[in-house]
Amino acid sequence: MKTRETTRATAASWQEEARSARWTEEIAEAVFRAQEAEGISLWAFCQRHGLSYARVRFWQQRRSREQQPLSLVPVRVSGAALPDESGAGGLEMEVSGVRVQVREGASQELISRVVRALKESTAC
C-alpha cells in the first residue's frame, strides 16, 4: 500500500528525471503514467510541471510508433525484368519515396546498414 510520502517521493523522482538533458524510455514512461494519473491534457500537464511540450510530444509519437503492429503491404510484381549489363541479379525496392538497389552478392552487413538508415530517415 502506498503512503502519501511514497507517492510524493515517486512524483518528485520522475519530475527530477524529466528535467534532465537526455530522456530514456523509462523517464518518458514515468511522465506518461503521471500525466494519465492526473487526467489532464498533455499540454496542461506540461504547463503545470514546466516540461517542454515538444519533447513530451516527440516521446509520445515515438511510443505510439513502437506500439503499432507491423503489417505486410501489397506488392506489385511485374513480368521478368532483363538483367543489367553486368548480368548480376539483386533486389530493388522503394520505401517512402526512396529507391534502393541491392546487388546480388551484397554483404549482410551492408544490407543491415541500408535498412537501418532507411528506418531512421522515415522515423523523422
Description:
With 124 residues, this protein is mainly alpha-helical. It has 2 domains: 4-67, no CATH class; 90-122, no CATH class. The chain has 5 helices and 2 strands. The chain has a two-stranded antiparallel ribbon with strand order 1-2. β1 (90-95) and β2 form a beta hairpin. α1 (4-18) packs across α2. The radius of gyration is 23 Å and the shape is elongated. It comes from Stigmatella aurantiaca (strain DW4/3-1). This is Transposase, Orf 1.
Provide a compact summary of the structure:
By secondary structure, the protein is mostly helical.
The side-by-side strand order for the widest beta sheet comes to 1-2
Please tell me the total number of domains: 2
Judged by helices, strands and strand pairing, the structural class is: mainly alpha
| Strand count | 2
Map the helices and strands.
Layout: H1 4-18, H2 25-38, H3 42-49, H4 53-67, E1 90-95, E2 98-103, H5 108-122
Antiparallel strand pairs: 1-2
Helix pairs in contact: 1-2
